[in-house]
Amino acid sequence: MAQRLFSSSHLSHSSASNRRHIYLMSRNGLLLLVALLLLLGVSLRWSASPLFICPNKSSSSSYSSLPSNWRDYSLAQAAKFVAKDGTVIVCTVSYPFLPFLSNWLISVSRQKHQDKVLVIAEDYATLYLINEKWPGHAVLIPPALDSQTAHKFGSKGFFKFTSRRPRHLMQLLELGYNVMYNDVDMVWLQDPFQYLEGSHDAYFTDDMTRPLNQSHDLPPPDRNGVTYICSCMIFLRPTNGAKLLMKKWNKELQEYGTKAYEGNDQPAFNWALNKTASQVDLYLLSQAAFPTGGLYFQNATWVEETQGKHVIIHNNYIIGYENKMKRFHDFGLWLVDDHAFESPLGKLE
Q: Where are the annotated coiled coils located (predicted)?
């Protein structure tokens, strides 16, 4: 009985196996097998693709040469990575001002110059966040500053933050790059490189209200021997004149920093400008194109008269993080809320 059951079961199993074998060898079976093999091959290719594994990461081989430990990333490495046509766009940022950085980057990206940007991070939190989201575009030049404090204009912390600027710019000039420096409380409306006429050593903007047909020369000092050129938007070529100016600015800052009032770097910058004016080919940019916050945000008549000429708007002549943000909001220049993904940093948490 058991033998018959076993024999019957064995025959039944053999019969089923033969039927499956015949089915697989049939035309439909072969087509099904080919389809399965093709599907498996496509799946394997996708799983091996960097875009499949990390859809938000770049697969560019250029990142492979970057150090994994950003503490060891030098300014020379960083500049070489971002420079395009011998030019680097530089800003200095501490962690509390990352929203302003992202806002500025959106406007720079709209003019197709974001790849040239190098962020000099003033703290390690900023360094790691930017290089995680945008590899290679941030570097820290020790010593690192406190990452939690948004230093107010006129404070000692603000002075420490801004007074390192000429040393950073000098290093980049020594490496042979053209350098554009921007504060991040700015918004680009047009491409500023179209307005850098000639081959001057250095280009600056003016904090004083001037006539629309102003001269491009350094204005004469006022009765107190002071000029009011802004150090917040600078373009420098790697010439002896530009290097001399940066050295002089740094020297003036060292002397100025020992005084009781440590407000900001601009008085020392203007003293350096006046002391080197005969040795440096300076060019003062049009105020219609590069207006101060005192003009653009406070003089509606002037804005109407210069409509279409505005290139970079600087949100100065106002103090305070929240105040600057509100004014950008009021004038439709706070881009982060609705256009965050236009920033190379994406949406910040």
A: none
Q: Hey, which residues does 178 pair with through a beta bridge?
A: 87
Q: Which of 189-198, 223-232, 239-248 has the lowest mean pLDDT?
A: 223-232
DSSP labels for 271-283?
Answer: HHHHHHTTTS-EE
* Residue 17: partners with Cβ closer than 8 Å, 6 or more residues away: none
Nearby residues of 143 by Cβ (< 8 Å), 6 or more positions away: none
Place of tokens 């990333």: 73
Rounded Cα distance between 212 and 306, Å, is 9
Residue among 186, 185, 181 nearest 312 (CA): 186
How confident is residue 254, by pLDDT bands cut at 50, 70 and 90? confident
Q: In sequence order, which residues have a C-beta less than 8 Å from that of residue 308 and are 6 or more positions away? A: none
Whole-prediction pTM value?
0.78
Distance CA 82, CA 117 (A): 7
Distance CA 231, CA 101 (A): 18
How distant, in Å, are the alpha carbons of 48, 102, 119, 196, 290 from that of 218? 59, 32, 29, 16, 16
Give the Cα separation of 80 and 107 in Å (integer).
23
Computed from CA positions of residues 170, 172, 174, 179, in that sequence, does the dihedral angle turn out positive or negative? negative
Q: Which CATH number fits domain 75-342: 3.40.50.720, 3.40.50.300, 3.30.450.40, 3.90.550.10?
A: 3.90.550.10
Is the C-alpha dihedral spanning 24, 25, 29, 34 positive or negative? positive
Contact 312, 233 (CB under 8 A): yes
Q: Is the peptide bond before 238 cis (omega within 30 degrees of 0)?
A: no
> φ and ψ at 115, to 5 degrees?
-65, -20
State the virtual CA torsion across 49, 50, 53, 55 in degrees, nearest 10: -120
Distance, in Å, from the CA atom of 242 to the CA atom of 248, rounded to the nearest integer, reads 10
Closest to 246 in 3D by CA, of 181, 293, 199: 181
Which of the four pLDDT bands, split at 50, 70 and 90, describes residue 136?
very high
**Do the strands 229-236 and 202-206 form a parallel or antiparallel pair, or are they unpaired?**
antiparallel
